Amino acid sequence: MSVMEGVGNGEEPEVVAQACMLSEFSESTEVRALISSLPDIHHDTVSKEATIEKFVVIMDRYQEQSHLLDPHLEWMLNMLLEMIRNEKSPPLLVHLCFKFLYIISKVRGYKIFMQLFPHEVSDVQPVLELLCRQDPKDTETWETRYILLLWLSMTCLIPFDLSRLDGHLSTDPGLNREPIMDRILAVAKSFLTVSDKSRDAASVLVSKFVTRPDVKQKRLGDFLDWCLTTISQTSEMTMEGTVTLDGALQSLAQLFKHGKRDDFLQYAPTVLQCLNQKRIAESNQATLRKLGVKVVQRLGLTFVKPRLAKWRYQRGSRSLVVNLAQSSVTESVEATKPDLESVSLDEDYDIPQEVENVIEQLLVGLKDKETIVRWSSAKGIGRVTGRLPKELADDVVESVLECFSFQETDNAWHGGCLALAELGRRGLLLPSRLSDVVPLIIKALTYDEKRGACSLGSNVRDAACYVCWAFARAYEPSELKPYVNQIASALVIATVFDRNVTCRKAASAAFQENVGRQGTFPHGIDILTAADYFTVGNLNNCYLTISVYITGFEEYTKPLIDHLVAMKVNHWDGVIRELATKALHNLTVRAPEYMANTVLPQLLPMATGMDLHRRHGAILACAEITHALYELATQDNSSVTDFLSSDTIEGLKNIHQKLSDRKQYRGFGGELMRPA
After folding, report:
1. Interior CA angle at 480 toward 476 and 482, to 5°?
2. Rounded Cα–Cα distance for residues 456 and 448 (Å)
3. How far apart are CA 413 and CA 506, in angstroms?
4. Is there a contact between 508 and 493 (Cβ–Cβ < 8 Å)?
5. Cα 186 vs. chain centroid, distance in angstroms?
6. Are 498 and 449 in contact, with CB atoms under 8 Å apart?
7. 65 phi/psi in degrees, rounded to 5
8. How far is the CA of 476 from the CAs of 91, 323, 394, 452, 490, in angstroms?
9. pTM for the structure as a whole
10. Residue 237 · residue 243 · CB < 8 Å
11. From CA 213, how far away is CA 191, in angstroms rounded?
């Protein structure tokens, strides 16, 4: 369902959501029957497609809770492998079995699923032979190649020198066959340049195979040379070139991730120099820029020693029960906090010059126009900073905070939020920095930049909610206590007044996390009950019902009203302006004096200003608030003028006169202004 459906007529449909909490894999009998039927239906296209469709529908139900498949993975794998290994199975059946294996691996994740493949010494040759017989250009059978490469990745882990598998090669020179080590490397290289999913599996094969003790001793340098030569000599201007670069960069990223630092440190400067010369960060292809960031961060982690910074902020008890019970947490806190002064003495170790280059590239990646690049950069900054001395890490935090300038684009704000969340999650954003960070996050929660006929910033607001969620888990309640009212009000405002349904749900989830982990948010449980993840799906409900309930709590009354007046009455979207003014009407009953003495005097200058949207919203707001005050006065048998000062009454009377004098009821603006 489109979340923006119905916004044009002032309505947003109730988002129907069904909790996807499954308790077990209940379709095991049906799946067993489907797999057993494969030999009978593999030759019939219609039956085959129907069976695949049924299997996909069943498996996709477990996409969010794939761990429920774990007790059943082994028998599914064994049934399918039995058919694959059967010499009487026709090729069509073998490919169909591999398709089923791919569907399972997609849902459960290849990292878990590939561990179940048989990986005896006797499996190496058959799997390699079967893979060599495949046609890389056959678009119908890519799942077969993908699964075989993963399977070969597991069989490569056998703890024997591969030369033993070559057997008679050394004794019988008449047989001109390659050693198995070279054959596997050749297969991996050939699949690194294909355009389908098997390229990803080939990079996994490389990371498992080339890091073997016997292979890295003989072939690691050559393979890295091949990768760097490929990167240097390949142009990204063609589709083939982009695919080849993708494969080489994926291999490097996987190798530097899984290999031992001692083996790769000598090659890291050369690889970094090659990437700098290629200028991957300036590529037009987002996937290449993302892979470039991945390789660079892995190089950064190779340059610095694999040690966790002792200066990190470490939260003590993370028990929700403890937080909600408000028991004496503070005693345990003091015991778990590191003595920052003393540990900083242990942090004096040399950091290679290349690390500065790495961090600079990651900071540039935070401002990339694509989310995948920004997200990868943020994770890289978190990982590398965790190994730096305290002073250098603080410089990185300072650089990240520079993303939150109003000269920067929404991309920089989004990347900055992701980086702060990563730093906070890892304990690398010390509590002393919260006074700088929290005001920026509050701004990010309402970030909205008009661009033509639409606005930018929903991703920034969503990421700011993620920061609040991460901070709830990262810090002790005592550290966040000075900022509780600011964060709580900002999250409540985003939960009920954000235009985007995704941001409202993200804010609700972040508020819920803070209520549970911190236990200090005012009236947290009551608000969560009214504004949970599902009830905030309907925009009208948020503005006209939930907001009225929340403003019943004194801490939130003025912040919600002030936000509507400052940010929503003058919003570029007419639907939001009208909803905001109706909300002000409903909220007047919560604070009539504040509305009459503070809000109306703020709105009157806006009502006769030059900006059309601001003028339209302000006039509607003045009308709605005055009407609400009139209704309150009627209940008390008094006059509306008892609420309003003489200046306010005069200002309301003069709105029509001032606009008439300036002829602002004419033209396009008049279509809005006359009804208002």
Report:
1. 140
2. 6
3. 17
4. no
5. 36
6. no
7. -130, 55
8. 60, 9, 21, 43, 20
9. 0.85
10. no
11. 23
